[in-house]
Amino acid sequence: MRLGLVIDLDVCVGCHACAIACKQWNASGTIGPLSDYQPYGAEPSGVWFNRIRHYEMDEYPHNKTVNFPMSCNHCEDADCVTVCPTGASYKRAEDGIVLVDQDKCMGCNYCSWACPYGARELDRSSGTMKKCTLCVDRIYDEALAVEDRQPSCVLTCPAHARWFGDFDDPDSQVSRITRERGGFGLMPELGYNPTNQYLPPRRKPVIEVNSQPRSGLKESIKQFANKLVRR
Amino acid sequence: MHPAFSVIFFTVASGAGFGLFSLLFIADTFKLGGGFSQDQLVAGGLVSLGLIVFGLLSSTFHLANPKNAWRAFSRFRTSWLSREGVFAVVFMPLALIYLASIMFDAPLWLRESTGLLAAILAWITVFSTGMIYACLKTIRQWNTPLVPANYLALGYSSGSLLLLLGAVMAGLDTTPYIAMSAFIVSIAAVLKAIYYFWIRDPGLSPTINTATGLTRAKVKLLDTGHTHGTFLTQEFGYQLARSQATLLKVLVFAIGFGLPGLMLVWVFNAQGGQTLAWVAAIAGLLGAAMERWLFFAEARHVVNLYHGAQRC
Ligand code: SF4
Ligand code: SF4
């Protein structure tokens, strides 16, 4: 199995709900807490596994805002794992999930240097490296209903911009949608082979705004009456 | 990259220590300048081991969870950081046996073979230190074979200046030591110059377009999505003004290579002069420390693309 996410950049509305859901679940999950520093102070900061950034593509009037959620890509060739000197970082053979063993990590930051995607953050309170677990403590939980055995972010997304599944299965939803919509991995030139795939914003025809002549009062009354009268 | 002083100190001190040890072994084998006495060799060896141990200890200060530091030896097969630790630890007993066999007049074969092995391991350890950085594909300024070459050249050049100081203090014929220092310092200077020239050109590096996959038009950052800084901005956000970097490069060359070179000429003419040799050794170490600071400060991690950089 090669578990991962598909993120649809065409429909993500940039609401940060997935990041909040992630924080909520994982703060009390297997590698929690996700420490906050000065949460109510002047310089609020803290550990997050999922961050949403916002970009603008092209220039006015052809510009488009693209909201961009990012978390660990659970890369196939994850250098974060190879560089780790303690063996705390590892990639599971059975499903490809990349995890950090909190009991082994010495907090050297080296893995975060090796990650191109900024997916790893050091927790100052525990002194260990933390990152997205793909909700490994949810997706196999048989106490949950089958439809709930998905990462928190995927379940929460109000725009349905996130999908979870097995990329090794060519007929899985994630494989199909990636194929059909031309999904891509980020920064392929570095050769990490990220598992997570992003669906590009669709090319939409430009909507003409002022194409119809403005109708006068008489015309509007006529149209209104037309709607009322039964023929 | 954020320049962490513990790491700068570690790489400079241990590099100089390993360099000093290897060159001391050469000086002993060929009895350069008349040869050091037994006591002097042992003292020099202990200074080099002191630098190495001090450096290794200071490197643990940048760990957030040092109680697990012992585990760092466990991924020898994949991690250069692990390899560096293992090589340094294997080096230690060999170096100690070498020094002991000098002190207790052990048979020559034992002295020479342990010395040679330790010198080779010293070379491999410094190479591994360089590879810790050079193997990262995420930082263009580091991902080049010039990095381990620079680490080795600078370690050996500061080691050679320390050895020259020892030779002056011991009252040996300084000419061979001056020649050795001059040779190594100029190699280090040339390699560093090539490095600075090389990293000026971004070449085929990732851009904000490949980072976001939005390659069909210009992309710019609207909002990073965080209120204040994050771990990522603290660790990778550091940016050095170009004018400042240029100034520091001039200083690296003036203090790290120029001044020691001048002192070498002076020591040669005066046939001695402890103060001059001290100045050379300290300037060499100071230059190496500045070079190391700049090495971190100039490195731009690709994660900066997600924070708005157009190219890294
Ligand atoms: S996204 Fe980063 S942390 Fe996750 S597997 Fe890839 S390299 Fe490792
Ligand atoms: S911070 Fe922890 S997980 Fe990362 S490389 Fe160091 S020991 Fe490994």
Give the radius of gyration of chain B.
22 Å
Strand content of chain B: under 5%
Rg of chain A, nearest Å: 23 Å
CATH architecture of chain B: Up-down Bundle
- The name of the CATH topology of chain A is Alpha-Beta Plaits
Q: How many β-strand stretches of chain A? A: 11
Shape designation of chain A = elongated
Structural overview:
- The complex is a heterodimer of chains A (231) and B (312).
- Chain A has 231 residues and is an alpha+beta fold.
- Chain A has helices at residues 17-27, 79-83, 110-114, 136-139, 152-156, 173-181, 217-228; strands at 3-8, 36-37, 45-46, 51-57, 64-70, 89-91, 98-100, 121-123, 128-130, 162-166, 197-199.
- Chain A has a single domain, classed as 2-Layer Sandwich (Alpha-Beta Plaits), CATH 3.30.70.
- Chain A is built from seven helices and eleven strands.
- In chain A, the strands form five sheets. In chain A, strands 10-1-11 form a three-stranded mixed sheet. A two-stranded antiparallel ribbon of chain A has the order 2-3. Chain A has a two-stranded antiparallel sheet with strand order 4-5.
- In chain A, a hairpin with a 6-residue loop joins strand 4 (51-57) and strand 5.
- Chain B has 312 residues and is an all-alpha fold.
- Helix content of chain B is 68%, strand content 2%.
- Chain B has ten helices and one strand; from the N terminus they run αααααααβααα.
- Chains A and B meet through strand 4, strand 5, helix 2 and helix 3 of A and helix 3, helix 7, strand 1 and helix 8 of B.
- One iron/sulfur cluster binds at residues 84, 86, 88-89, 100, 105-111, 129 of chain A.
List its salient traits.
heterodimer; A: 231 residues; alpha+beta; Alpha-Beta Plaits; three-stranded mixed sheet; 7 helices; B: 312 residues; mainly alpha; Formate dehydrogenase/DMSO reductase fold; 68% helix; 2% strand; binds iron/sulfur cluster
